[in-house]
Amino acid sequence: MTSKNDKILLINPWIYDFAAYDFWIKPLGLLSIGGVLANYGYEIELIDCLDRFHMVYGEKYSRHQLNKKNGTGKFRRQPVDKPVFLANIPRTYARYGMPIDLFRTLIDSIAIPDVILVTSAMSYWYLGPFKAIELLKEKFPGVPVILGGIYATLFPEHAREYSGADFVIEGAGERKALTKVAELTGRSIDMSSFPIQWARLPLPDFQHYPNLASVALMTSKGCPYNCSFCASRAISGDFEQRPAEHIIEQIDSYARSRHVTHFAFFDDALLIDADNHLLPILEAVRDRQLKVQFHTPNGIHAKEITAEIARLMHATDFKTIRLSYESSDKGRQREMSYKVTDESLAVALDHLETAGYNRKDIDVYVIMGLPDQDIAEVVRSMLFVTSLGAKVRLTSFSPIPGTRDWERSIIQCGFPADADPILTNNSIFPLHLFDGKQHNFQQIRYLSKVLNYSLDQNINLFDHSDLANLIKKILLTKFNA
Question: pTM for this one?
Fold first, then answer.
């Protein structure tokens, strides 16, 4: 039996941004830490401000915020004052997630915890953790608060100075959180049996979600590639994969005992060593006849998609497929260690189509706003994706400390090295915030919508007809591509 001094409160805070949407989001790092602490006898309580299905909504607020059939949906949205750094952005700023009064209701209903752990996601969402810490300090004065997560890892000094947390954890948090919690609760913990490898740590624990609409899967951490704009290595460290059998049992357990249908892979490199990793997982799902659907919101490496992988993805009901492509520029592909080429993207789409997918149901990521990237490169990349019959999914660059493009942003574009983290928000095109080019990026967004709409209407802009050639010529001229 645990004493009251064994109670740990986990908090996943709100998102503060111009827009946010629930694409199967779960605080995997926080849930992993919760699993570790529970294994050492701590009593765990979770408040997830982004849980759209929380029982606390009740009659006052509807839980299911325009929930879609694939398990995604809109967060509850409350407009708030814009931070001073974003005052000139002509868009509405908002807090996404649980209403503040319901959060207060939840913390009013629980016993005083011994330690509070707050996580953080995107660096430019830090106002969410700040608000949570403010309210928690108000309700539980004297209770130590530990802040971890992505923002705390990438901007630790900013977090220490401004967050209000008593302690800030950088990087992987399982061992560090256990050590600090043990210190604060006066426990003597034997760390000799603590796993050295991340892959051997307990899986994230979803038992604290009474209404579990989806499960987020992290079957690996890190990525063997080292793209100039990606913070995977800075955040996650070396690439590791969990044993396939652990993932199989996780999927099986939640599918059978909790009747979960939607599973989203949040790996940065899901298809690496697929013969020993993803393929056994999918074969088990097929053989056990589990009625589930899979989603890949982070994007998967097109080069790794073989005919066999495509067939198994279709057989096990992968509904959301997003491919990492980024750019058609050969120099940029070389800098990404050729994780994808034009040819490998085309082959991947061929395999997926042969397996039974419609090309227009597949999204391909194209990045824009990089420090050394012109508009023409983005347009050429979009047109190539469309020529293959797939949809363009634009993603905007965010300067992230520890990446090569962070340094380029500072040297080539004059991005302030000491800029407030809120200015790294990719939706404001941070490198072009004051140079008048934001309008160009908005035009590109409109263009992507036109290209994708044409595919939905079965209009082929690349069928070599006179009209198609004229349209392509106008587009290339318009964007100097």
Answer: 0.93
